[in-house]
Design goal:
The structure holds 2 protein chains of 2 kinds. By secondary structure, chain A is an all-alpha fold. Chain A has 3 helices and no strands. Chain A has one domain: Helix Hairpins, CATH 1.10.287. Chain A is elongated and about 55 Å long. Chain B is globular. The chains are: A mainly alpha, B mainly alpha.
């Protein structure tokens, strides 16, 4: 098994794990964690496929796309967490003020 | 291939899958988040094995560090105010919210076994289908590699990833920065109305002195990573991630730190996008196309854009953290009036 195949298949498995978590975990925070893991699986497939020929330097285009993806993922996570925070605390705070 | 490296790959990928499953199965949410941080660190090892050092740098700082901090921050909010349970139907029908001992991967009690079986079948077949798509791609050696090597000579930099990010596919990066702005706007508007004021996190003398020691190093490493990004792994995103992490560290330890004016912070926040757009428009005037650099100027322009982007993205990351901060309204008050630590940190970097 080549490293590319190894890591690409791991990426597929991680995506499935993340997807299952998204469907089956009850807690919203865990759902957000799961989406992040599914995204990491996609990134892993991308970067693994960028290194198909071991003797030449890896293809920089998928790497740059993944770099972009990581930054977008963290901002999307922050938005999701802010929504979560709003969802959990806004109703509880209404009686006070 | 080296058999010890093959063993390393096998163990690393297996560990990744096991840790990912543990994130879902862990009884405690805190444990799950810490495992997620471990997952990110293991993933950056995987990036190194795949020759993607740029991605590894970003993953270690953002994927593992900052995302984990965001989650822990949010969890602290839940723990602090969440004792009086929020309306159960918006969260979970079974009221599993109140404590963190959640059913995790175990389906909700309402799900019948047929539903579980159906989901298992669907998940299994989706995995198999994706594997069937990926395997032929992974084993084929005639990769459709875009001809980058000859274009590299005109790109102005020698690190291919930086060339792709800021020259060949600069449009993607420009839009990405716009997405970051949108995220900051969303998070700020979501947290602005919160009226609860809480105390800042307590910080002991050990933590405070550690932060004082580590912050200059963080700034120096960030500048180095930014500067070396034109010829070696590194660049604006990695440097910004480091700076942002430093700013977050400063925020959570709550050391007294000089603040800066509101307008200055706003200017710094949009500076990256604005300079990037101006450079793009300049390319339209000079070279004929949007975001096309004259080859003689490409290196200078890329370094300029990267430097300003570093400042802006670092500030974005800190403000995203403030948006999910457990200090609630205090955090948003900081966001709207002053962000102690964050801006002085980046301005120091900017002048250096």
């Amino acid at each position: 098994m080549t490293p590319t195949l190894n890591y690409a298949l791991t990426g597929v498995v991680l995506f499935s794990v993340g997807l299952s978590g998204l469907f089956f975990c009850a807690h919203l925070l865990r759902k957000i964690l799961s989406v992040n893991m599914a995204g990491s699986g996609v990134f892993l497939v991308f970067v693994a496929l960028a290194r198909r020929q071991p003797d030449v330097p890896p293809d920089p285009v998928p790497q740059a796309l993944v770099l972009t993806g990581i930054v977008v993922a963290v901002s999307a996570t922050a938005v999701a967490l802010a929504l979560f925070r709003r969802l959990t605390h806004e109703p509880a705070e209404e009686p006070h003020g | 291939m080296d058999s010890s490296l093959a063993w390393f790959d096998a163990i690393l990928t297996l560990t990744l899958v096991v840790v990912a499953l543990r994130v879902l199965f862990a009884q405690d949410l805190f444990q799950a988040i810490v495992l997620f941080i471990v997952f990110g660190l293991l993933l950056s090892l995987a990036w190194c094995r795949l020759g993607a050092v740029d991605v590894a740098l970003a993953e270690a700082a953002i994927g593992a560090g900052l995302t984990g901090a965001l989650f822990l921050n949010t969890l602290a909010t839940t723990r602090r105010h969440g004792d009086q349970a929020p309306p159960a139907e918006t969260i979970d029908r079974k009221g599993a919210w109140v404590d963190d001992k959640l059913p995790t991967l175990r389906p909700r009690p309402s799900t019948p076994w047929t539903g579980r079986l159906a989901f298992g079948l669907v998940a299994g077949s989706v995995t198999a289908w994706m594997a069937a798509v990926v395997v032929p791609l992974a084993v084929s050696s005639d990769a459709p590699r875009i001809a980058i090597d000859e274009a590299m000579l005109r790109s102005g930099v020698t690190n291919p990833v930086t060339a792709v990010l800021l020259n060949f596919r600069a449009y993607d990066t420009l839009l990405e920065v716009a997405v970051l702005m949108l995220a900051v706007l969303t998070v700020s508007s979501l947290t602005a109305g919160s009226a609860r004021v809480s105390k800042a996190l307590p910080s002991g003398p050990v933590l405070t002195s550690f932060v004082r020691l580590i912050l200059p190093v963080v700034v120096m490493v960030a500048v180095y990573v930014l500067w070396s990004g034109t010829k070696a792994p590194g660049g604006a995103f990695q440097a910004a991630a480091l700076l942002g992490a430093g700013g977050v560290l400063l925020l959570v330890t709550d050391t007294q730190s000089p603040s800066c004016a509101r307008y200055l912070r706003r200017v710094l926040l949009v500076a990256g996008l604005a300079v990037f757009l101006l450079v793009g428009l300049g390319g339209m005037l000079g070279a004929g196309r949007f975001l096309e650099y004259p080859p003689a100027w490409a290196g200078v322009l890329i370094t300029l854009v990267e430097t300003v982007l570093t400042v802006s993205i670092a500030l974005v990351l800190v403000m995203l953290f403030v948006g999910t901060s457990p200090t609630g309204a205090e955090g948003s008050a900081r966001a709207s009036d002053e962000t102690p630590g964050a801006t002085p940190l980046v301005s120091r970097e900017r002048t250096s």
